[in-house]
Specification:
The protein is mainly alpha-helical and 81 residues long.
Length: 81
């Protein structure tokens, strides 16, 4: 029996936008995340931005500190119908 995976809302566009605004490459961002205790590689982070993998709350917390933004910035536009 084939199981279909239901896609949830994706914050990948917001993750990419915030990263671009900060002027960081995915590689440099991952180095900063690792420095802050989040063991995230570039390929994993790329999957977050592509919507292929759900991001962990601990990573969002670290990103908020790196970007100096609000949590709302991560969810911008996701409640639009």
């Amino acid at each position: 029996m084939e199981q279909k995976i239901r896609r949830d809302r994706c914050m990948g566009d917001n993750l990419g936008r915030l990263r671009a605004l900060s002027g960081l490459s995915q590689e440099k961002l991952c180095a900063e995340l690792q420095r802050r205790g989040c063991d995230i590689g570039r390929s994993t982070y790329a999957k977050y931005e592509a919507g292929e993998l759900n991001i962990r709350a601990s990573v969002i917390i670290a990103l908020r500190k790196i970007y100096n933004c609000t949590y709302d910035d991560f969810f911008l536009g996701l409640d639009d119908e």
